[in-house]
Design goal:
This protein has 335 residues and is α/β, with parallel strands linked by helices. The chain folds into 2 domains: 133 residues, Rossmann fold (3-Layer(aba) Sandwich); 177 residues, NAD(P)-binding Rossmann-like Domain (Rossmann fold), CATH 3.40.50.720. The chain has 12 helices and 12 strands. Strands 8-7-6-9-10-11-12 form a 7-stranded parallel sheet, with helices on both faces. Strands 2-1-3-4-5 form a 5-stranded parallel sheet. The radius of gyration is 22 Å and the shape is elongated.
Length: 335
């Protein structure tokens, strides 16, 4: 394999989808800019760029590597006989599961690591907003009501960050910067330098009542679907704030809406819902003390593609040297 990779240029196919926002499109101009930053590696590639499957079948017949998962995935090995590596230019791979379409000898990587800086900024804003009861203040403004809402200092409170990947670490950094005690939860209790303590999911029920803010940052898997169920939301203390930058189905949103309507939570910020886009007739739009943002928390509006391609080229160097790729998706865990 080393000799084959070194003997000729690799064929890279980039697949774009117009239904996705423009910031995610890898255009010829954006690819060329990245290629100039990685000239030596880019010289190893012949590149095709397609849109919505317009050239995908022809490109897959000769592709060695691909950025963007084809919309039609059945019989992929037959259609792409030498394809060795697909990069999914997003962190979440739940839309691609189950992975029965992925040949056993084909590597799938994701965009983990591109979103952390923006997640940190968003969580810093969201925690401060919830603590100052800004959703309530804005509702009063719209109702033309002048009623003073005073809040104490934020430092010293506790943030429970569920998930400590790229997004969760960004959330933990933000909470620490605001002077909060940070408790992390993930599959293992490996320490995180941005968290005061880290526990496994087994401790979740014990930890939820301690939280002043709960930040959900886990990938959507069979294990995390409905992780914050109605029963677990009942464990939260009065006034707790909830922030979800993960996936909508991780939280029972109907139960969350009930608690917000009853005034037993301080507020919530949901950057993700289910379904997306949220239909105009959804009851969530009218829930008090709830801020809904349209899945924008963690994506850099100027440099998403540049960040993606820079990390991809770093991985290409590993690929050419037959080294293990960063961000390889675990088919069993789902991330």
């Amino acid at each position: 394999m080393t000799a084959r990779r070194g003997a000729r240029k690799l064929r890279l196919h980039i697949e774009n989808f117009r239904r996705k926002a423009e910031i995610f499109h890898i255009t010829p101009e954006r690819y060329a800019a990245a290629a100039r930053r990685h000239r030596a590696l880019a010289r190893r590639l012949d590149v095709t760029i397609g849109w919505d499957g317009d050239i995908v079948e022809q490109a897959l017949r000769e592709a060695d590597v691909a950025i963007g998962v084809p919309g039609r995935r059945e019989r992929l090995r037959e259609r792409a006989p030498q394809l060795a590596w697909i990069h999914h230019p997003s962190a979440g791979v739940d839309p691609l599961m189950p992975f029965d379409w992925l040949p056993a000898d084909m590597v799938l990587t994701n965009n983990r690591g591109v979103h952390g800086a923006k997640a940190e900024e968003f969580i810093r804003m969201a925690i401060t907003m919830l603590h100052t009861r800004m959703p309530e203040v804005i509702a009063q403004q719209h109702a033309r009501v002048w009623r003073q809402v005073f809040t104490p200092a934020l430092a010293g409170r506790t943030a429970l960050v569920i998930g400590l990947g790229d997004l969760g670490e960004g959330a933990a950094r933000a909470a620490r910067q605001l002077g909060l005690t940070v408790i992390g939860v993930r599959r293992n209790a490996r320490p995180c330098r941005h968290a005061d303590r880290v526990h496994t999911f087994r401790a979740l029920d014990r930890l939820l009542p301690k939280a002043d803010f709960v930040v959900v940052a886990v990938p959507l898997t069979a294990e995390t679907r409905n992780l914050l169920s109605r029963e677990r939301l009942e464990l939260l203390k009065p006034g707790c704030g909830v922030i979800n930058i993960a996936r909508g189905p991780v939280i029972d949103n109907a139960a969350l809406a009930d608690k917000l309507a009853a005034g037993t939570l301080g507020g919530a910020v949901l950057d993700v819902v289910d379904p997306e886009p949220l239909p105009p007739d959804s009851a969530l739009w009218d829930v008090p003390n709830l801020v809904i943002t349209p899945h924008i928390s963690c994506d850099d509006g100027d440099d998403y593609v540049a960040l993606t391609l820079d990390r991809w080229f770093e991985n290409l160097a590993r690929f050419l040297q037959n080294k293990p790729l960063a961000n390889r998706v675990n088919r069993t865990l789902g991330y």
